[in-house]
User: Which sequence fits this backbone?
């Protein structure tokens, strides 16, 4: 994927923050809670800070590194981090909070000349800018690859440097929501890890499968582009740890994944595996999050979709739900996915897809059956793009509730799924997840890192 696609600056859920209701107050006011908590943390955590400082000095010959960032009222300050790669790099930021330069909750610190404005009660823009913070929703989502979920605190969002949610009342540590944000951030960081210093290759090779390291926007762009073309079906697959475990023991499925035109990284498991290899994944490009974005793009570009899969009536219900959400969406057809034992029905469905004018076919029969089906009938399909989407229609028809965003933010959607269908899924997750990580770790030991020189170059550029 060579074309550069701008990240959406108009996120789907922009505006979900409540309107500002309380009066404007100067920046720095209300920081006393943050200061007190930070001072207490510095005193209580002094042995930890001292140990981390010593490790930094032993590793690098320096204790801290610093960057100049924009504070309120056109002021700048030095934001310090511990040198070296050991955990706890950002602990010195507690000192900035103790001094009142930084808060626990607030937009990501940016280099000058960025300023962020608060809003006065009257609605006009205050002249004072808001205090940056250690934790914010955008950073949280960066750890688990969900930055495409947007939010008004996105550093590139127009709202980030204009009136946004960063009013004193929103920054207050005493808000339950903010405490929850801190807890989720710590959990997500533990699972998803820091990604800033890692290589971001264009592709990651895991257990014999080449996975495109695309952002959500790039993946949607690739599919829409291919759907507009006139080549034979281009096949798009999503892989999660369960898929890669299957590919290890199912040679036919592994061949399908190797020959697919686009393989995307679905879920936190691939992210952790890449991290074990020292790489960073751009986004968690799972089918369930990509789907509404693809519908929005298809509606905009006039690309008709065909929904094939799940039990009778479920694909149609999902199609209806999406046309309600995107009235311009063109649904070329919908059919259940139980075709395996009925060649006549299968031929009729293929004829229906081909004559429907669909430019994107979504096949939701579960992995690896859907990929096997697509491979078997590929020559008979004239639709430009086919995407294997697993149990997607069950979610969008409302048959199975999707995990709430906060669960996905901490990388725990698989626990949610396990709780819904423990009998069917325990083997996939409870045995499959550790087995997958062990296989990735062993592959690294045997083969070393599979990043190519070209990838390393493009990642470093
Ligand atoms: N399914 C289907 N045809 C079949 C077998 C299954 O359409 O012959 C559907 C099933 O109804 C469900 C989906 O495939 O909607 C499988 O969901 P699952 O969550 O197992 O798929 P995954 O996302 O894990 O691949």
Assistant:
């Amino acid at each position: 994927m060579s074309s550069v696609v701008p990240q959406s600056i108009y996120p789907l859920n922009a505006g979900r923050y409540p309107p500002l209701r309380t009066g404007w107050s100067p920046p720095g006011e209300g920081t006393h809670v943050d200061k007190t908590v930070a001072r207490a943390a510095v005193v209580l955590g002094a042995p930890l800070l001292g140990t981390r400082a010593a490790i930094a000095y032993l590793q690098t010959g320096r204790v801290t590194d610093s960057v100049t960032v924009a504070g309120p009222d056109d002021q700048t300050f030095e934001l310090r981090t511990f040198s070296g790669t050991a955990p706890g790099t950002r602990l010195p930021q507690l000192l900035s909070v103790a001094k009142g330069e930084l808060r626990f909750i607030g937009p990501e610190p940016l280099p000058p000349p960025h300023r962020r404005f608060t809003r006065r009660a009257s609605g006009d823009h205050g002249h004072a800018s808001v205090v940056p913070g250690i934790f914010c929703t955008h950073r949280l989502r960066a750890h688990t690859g969900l930055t495409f979920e947007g939010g008004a605190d996105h550093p590139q969002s127009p709202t980030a440097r204009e009136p946004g949610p960063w009013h004193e009342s929103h920054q207050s540590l005493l808000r339950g929501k903010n405490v929850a944000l801190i807890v989720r951030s710590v959990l997500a960081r533990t699972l998803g890890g820091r990604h800033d210093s890692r290589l971001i290759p264009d592709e990651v090779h895991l257990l014999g499968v080449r996975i495109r390291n695309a952002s959500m926007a790039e993946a949607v762009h690739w599919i829409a582009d291919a759907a507009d073309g006139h080549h034979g079906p281009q096949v798009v697959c999503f892989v999660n740890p369960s898929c890669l475990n299957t590919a290890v023991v199912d040679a036919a499925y592994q061949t399908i994944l190797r020959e697919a035109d686009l393989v995307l990284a679905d879920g936190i498991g691939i992210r952790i595996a890449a991290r074990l290899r020292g790489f960073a994944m751009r986004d968690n490009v799972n089918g369930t999050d990509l789907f509404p974005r693809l519908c929005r793009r298809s509606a905009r570009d006039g690309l008709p979709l065909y929904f094939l899969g799940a039990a009778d009536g479920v694909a149609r219900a999902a199609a209806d739900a999406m046309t309600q959400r995107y009235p311009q969406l063109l649904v070329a057809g919908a059919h259940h996915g139980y075709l395996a034992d009925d060649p006549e029905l299968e031929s009729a469905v293929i004829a229906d897809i081909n004559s429907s004018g669909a430019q994107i076919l979504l096949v939701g029969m579960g992995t690896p059956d859907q990929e096997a089906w697509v491979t078997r009938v590929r020559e008979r399909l004239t639709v430009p793009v086919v995407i294997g989407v697993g149990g997607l229609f069950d979610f969008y028809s409302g048959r199975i509730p999707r995990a709430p965003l906060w669960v996905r933010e901490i990388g725990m959607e698989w626990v949610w799924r396990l709780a819904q269908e423990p009998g069917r899924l325990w083997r996939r997750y409870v045995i499959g997840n550790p087995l997958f990580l062990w296989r990735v770790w062993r592959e690294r030991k045997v083969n070393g890192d599979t990043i190519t020189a070209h990838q390393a170059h493009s990642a470093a550029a």
In short: The pocket of uridine-5'-diphosphate is lined by residues 309-311, 337-338, 340, 364-367, 369, 390-391, 393-394 (CB under 6 Å). The chain has two domains: 7-192, 203-447.
